[in-house]
Design a protein that fits this description.
By secondary structure, this protein is α/β, with parallel strands linked by helices. It contains nine helices and eleven strands. The protein has helices spanning 29-39, 52-60, 75-86, 107-111, 134-137, 183-191, 196-201, 205-210, 230-241; strands spanning 3-9, 23-24, 27-28, 44-49, 64-67, 94-97, 124-130, 144-151, 154-161, 173-182, 215-219. Strands 7-10-8-9-11 form a five-stranded mixed beta barrel. Helix 2 (52-60) links the parallel strand 4 (44-49) and strand 5. The termini are far apart.
Length: 242
């Protein structure tokens, strides 16, 4: 299967202005993400952005960028436009959406999203990790996967929630927001209107589940650091300057 990795990047973060271009160990954050995505070795890597400065920084570092519209409501909408621009002949089978604020992500974590799509019944693959810290169990900013185990390292997702779920003894899983879409699944997904549970939980992936699409999650060892605040940025700088 032909794989295209797309990294959506926009400049309008309210908590961390100009986030994609934030300097980390001498390189913009978006360049760190592009480098790690390329190191995964699973396919062509392109940053999809609406900002000339982001595209210029990416290209100056030797990576590929594509300009997209500024009015997209989500990263999924942006990568869909980028896919159509980059692959009008429809040669790409799988699109991997890597968030542009994961500068420390392990390339092997990115590639872990591909194996669930070996099952033809799976529309979208994603990632999760077991929650080990008590403070994350009840934190609404930590999205949980409620799923049916398929193996020791894979779940079939039944629901995603900000609540603490499922109830009772057993592991809880932290959802990692990286997605591998079959091309037709991405096209179907972006054509759907926002769903009831998506709006209520503020979780876009629930739109797919409510529409009857299947999402499987590969369980990995660690959750990559997402950079959303100045504190997160300092943590990333410390990690990548060591």
């Amino acid at each position: 299967m032909s794989v295209l990795i797309l990294i959506p990047a926009r400049m309008s973060s309210s908590r961390l202005p100009n986030k994609p271009l934030a300097d980390i160990a001498g390189r913009p954050m978006i360049v760190h993400v592009a480098a790690r995505a390329a190191e995964s070795g699973i396919g062509r890597t392109v940053v999809a952005t609406d900002t000339d400065a982001v595209a210029a920084a990416v290209r100056a570092a030797g990576f590929e960028a594509v300009m997209t519209r500024a009015d997209h409501q989500s990263g999924s909408d942006r990568i869909h436009e980028a896919l159509e621009l980059l692959d009008p002949r429809r040669r790409v089978d799988i699109v991997v959406n890597v968030q542009g604020d994961l500068p420390t992500i392990d390339p092997a974590t990115i590639s872990a999203a591909i194996p669930p799509l070996d099952d033809a019944a799976v529309d979208i693959a994603t990632l999760g990790a077991a929650i080990t810290r008590d403070d994350e169990r009840n934190n609404p900013n930590v999205v949980k996967i409620v799923g049916s185990p398929l193996s020791a390292t894979r779940l079939r997702a039944l629901y995603f929630t900000r609540a603490t779920a499922p109830w009772g003894d057993g592991p809880l899983y932290h959802h990692i927001g990286l997605y591998a879409f079959r091309r037709n699944a991405l096209e179907r997904f972006v054509a759907l209107p926002p769903s009831t549970l998506e709006v209520r939980e503020r979780l876009e992936q629930l739109r797919a589940l409510e529409a009857g699409m299947r999402i499987d999650a590969e369980i990995v060892d660690t959750v990559p650091l997402g950079v959303d605040t100045p504190h997160d940025l300092e943590r990333a700088r410390a990690m990548l300057s060591a």
